[in-house]
Amino acid sequence: ELKVEQNPLFLSMQEGKNYTIYCNYSTTSDRLYWYRQDPGKSLESLFVLLSNGAVKQEGRLMASLDTKARLSTLHITAAVHDLSATYFCAVDLRNAGGTSYGKLTFGQGTILTVHP
Amino acid sequence: DGGITQSPKYLFRKEGQNVTLSCEQNLNHDAMYWYRQDPGQGLRLIYYSQIVNDFQKGDIAEGYSVSREKKESFPLTVTSAQKNPTAFYLCASSIDRSLPQHFGDGTRLSIL
Q1: Residues 29-58 of B with CB under 8 A from A
Q2: Is residue B104 classed exposed, middle or buried when 0-12, 13-18 and 19+ CB atoms within 10 A define those classes?
């Protein structure tokens, strides 16, 4: 059974500071997604990481994937209040032949609060 | 604009009642999914469908049923067998199983 664990689950940051959210998963996979969710809203896709060593950046957020360590990170640079939200990673489980099972397993989410 | 439409936004269920949540997409996506989100938790997969007239159980299918008679529609029925249905339900779709999923705005279900 695939398990996906994020840490920390709660993150309170000061504006202007840097921090990293970690996403560990238990089974080999080379496809990982990061999503953002605002309170009471749906999920917005942030990054799709498709291979070992993949790095994607958008604004103050940068995501990376290390498939050997089964670890993805979401790095926040110089946080601003608008980044306050819940961030989820999700892993696409594949079979031995590399074919996706077509379903995502989500981490618990990291609630990020950025304050002045 | 293309997208995923979930309705209603809020739904109340009486004890012993079945309720159906609607999910429609005009993205021409083959794959559709239903997730349940409880407060402070991640999403858990209820059912998914890769193609019309076919669907598979996810991790928490008990007490739920689905149909996929049309490509654009994937309704979810919460049956009376689901004893703890209060949650936020999200529908998603993707062009195929290997590509990112796009999410609807969700339906919040509560018990009266």
Answers
A1: 31, 33, 35, 40-45, 48, 50, 58
A2: buried
Strand order across the B64-66 sheet: B4-7, B19-25, B76-78, B64-66
- pLDDT tens digits along B29-42: 999 999 999 987 88
Tens of pLDDT along A21-43? 999 999 877 789 999 999 888 99
Please list every residue in chain A whose beta carbon sits closer than 8 Å to the beta carbon of residue B104.
42
Pick the residue of A103, A106, A111 with the most B CBs within 10 A to test the interface with B by mutation: A103
Whether residue A103 and residue B103 make contact (CB cut-off 8 A), yes or no, is: no
Distance CA B23, CA B86 (A): 18
| pLDDT for residue B98 | 64
